[in-house]
């Protein structure tokens, strides 16, 4: 109806989704699922809620195509958001307050409740216009992306349900762009979350001697920092993009001997450890990189050990870098690019996403996936305070998705469901 499709009701629905606090560590997943299901019902989409893991509902929606033999397209999104420091926000992060410039402030406004709702609003527009899909479109609303995706998107891609969906292409989140060109991503960097640990002889704080835990750890940290600087230099010099360098950031340092009175000052501790968030592009040889870690950053000769708290493989099931071809040889890329242009958008050359998204799980299993969020002219504030999205930008994004979804749903070529035919 006219009322349902007015700009103000579109914005109200977005606000309603944003107002559901799905921040970790206690995301209100059932409220989010109920909301998505109510939207699906209003659009007459088929729906299914799956709990691959208890208390972590995943909602799957289906807009059936006229030709069910054609492989489907999946529009992926996650329902969870990262935590907030409420008092550091100018507007409460789950109020979805709209200021006089039309900026909607909320955690998730960029990452990625916007995208999840825009998919649905685009479908509403297409339905209102009388469009009927030839190819089936699925939409997934998954939990836990922000804490690694193992209980969300990874469970989905490994499931029989997913197999039966016969998915040929996945669209997932991207990043906002500060200029007028949208960004699209054909790969993610793989997280390698490393903890290195040094042990050493404890002793009097006044004594100078070799092989203390602190000294052993600090030698590694010096080496890690030199490596970090060399990668950062390539970025600063413009020789590589953010997605093409290896980033190495220290995220914790832990040592010392503590008592209820505080740290003991005159005791050199026997253990020291550091946590490092490492992200490697898909072309990096992870085995060689791990050898470097074992030899230079955590050598046993310096009483050091290491472990990975998380590690995503850069390779897919075919043993090739888990990248999606983003050129004229991939019809899905061509459709996406043309649809964005036809809807009045501009697209930057595709890049590698600096973080890890759920798209990684699909690419790892050979499914082509592109990361794209229709957010331009907006500072990237995902995971930051005062995350916002302008309502005009949000509405424009719906037009962009309407064009993309229409193009995908109309595409009648019999495509393969796996990426195996796209060679690097
Ligand atoms: C180990 S997967 C972590 C996923 C997370 N994704 C979004 O920020 C990230 O840190 O990139
Ligand atoms: Zn996200
Ligand atoms: Zn995020």
Automatic annotation (TrEMBL):
One Pfam family cited in the UniProt record for this chain: M20_dimer
Binding positions for Zn(2+) 2 per the UniProt entry: 111, 146, 383
An example Gene Ontology biological process: amino acid metabolic process
Protein origin, superkingdom: Eukaryota
Top EC class, one word: hydrolase
Co-factor(s): Zn(2+)
E.C. code: 3.5.1.14
MF annotations from Gene Ontology: aminoacylase activity; metal ion binding
Binding residues for Zn(2+) 1: 78, 111, 173
Localization, UniProt: Cytoplasm
Binding note for cofactor: Binds 2 Zn(2+) ions per subunit.
Keyword Zinc-finger attached: no
Active site: 80, 145 (proton acceptor)
GO cellular component terms, A-Z: cytoplasm
Start and end residues of each Peptidase M20 dimerisation domain: 189-296
Entry keyword set: Cytoplasm, Hydrolase, Metal-binding, Signal, Zinc
Family indicated by similarity: Belongs to the peptidase M20A family.
PANTHER family: AMINOACYLASE-1
Protein name: N-acyl-aliphatic-L-amino acid amidohydrolase
Origin species: Spinacia oleracea (Spinach)
Gene: LOC110786639
């Amino acid at each position: 109806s006219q009322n349902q499709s007015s700009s103000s009701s579109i914005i109200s629905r977005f606000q309603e989704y944003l107002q559901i606090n799905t921040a970790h560590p206690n995301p209100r997943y059932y409220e989010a699922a109920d909301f998505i299901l109510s939207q699906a019902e209003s659009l007459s989409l088929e729906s299914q809620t799956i709990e691959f893991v208890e208390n972590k509902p995943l909602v799957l929606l289906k807009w059936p195509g006229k030709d069910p033999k054609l492989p489907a397209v999946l529009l992926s999104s996650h329902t969870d958001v990262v935590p907030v420091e409420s008092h550091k926000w100018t507007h409460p992060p789950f109020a979805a307050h709209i200021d006089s410039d039309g900026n909607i402030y909320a955690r998730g406004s960029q990452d990625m409740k916007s995208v999840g709702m825009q998919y649905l609003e685009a479908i509403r527009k297409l339905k209102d216009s009388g469009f009927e899909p030839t190819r089936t479109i699925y939409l997934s609303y998954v939990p836990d992306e922000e804490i690694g995706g193992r209980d969300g998107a990874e469970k989905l891609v490994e499931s029989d349900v997913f197999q039966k969906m016969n998915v040929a292409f996945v669209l997932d989140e991207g990043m906002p762009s500060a200029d007028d060109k949208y960004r699209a991503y054909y790969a993610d960097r793989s997280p390698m979350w490393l903890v290195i640990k040094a042990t050493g002889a404890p002793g009097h704080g006044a004594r100078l001697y070799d092989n203390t835990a602190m000294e052993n750890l600090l030698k590694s940290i010096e080496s890690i920092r030199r490596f970090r600087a060399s990668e950062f230099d390539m970025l600063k010099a413009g020789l590589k993009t953010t997605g093409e360098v290896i980033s190495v950031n220290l995220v914790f340092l832990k040592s010392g001997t503590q008592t209820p009175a505080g740290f003991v000052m005159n005791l050199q501790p026997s253990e020291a450890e550091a946590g490092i968030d490492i992200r490697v592009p898909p072309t990096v040889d992870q085995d060689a990189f791990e050898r470097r870690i074992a030899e230079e950053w955590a050598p046993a000769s310096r009483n050091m050990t290491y472990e990975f708290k998380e590690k995503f493989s850069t390779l897919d099931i075919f043993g090739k870098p888990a990248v999606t071809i983003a050129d004229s040889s991939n019809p899905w890329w061509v459709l996406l690019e043309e649809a964005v242009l036809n809807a009045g958008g501009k697209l930057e050359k595709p890049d590698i996403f600096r973080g890890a998204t759920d798209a990684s799980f699909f690419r790892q299993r050979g499914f082509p996936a592109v990361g794209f969020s229709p957010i331009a002219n907006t500072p990237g504030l995902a995971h930051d305070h005062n995350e916002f999205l302008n309502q005009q930008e949000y509405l424009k994004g719906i037009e962009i998705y309407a064009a993309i979804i229409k193009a995908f749903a109309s595409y009648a070529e019999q495509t393969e469901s796996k990426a195996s035919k796209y060679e690097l």
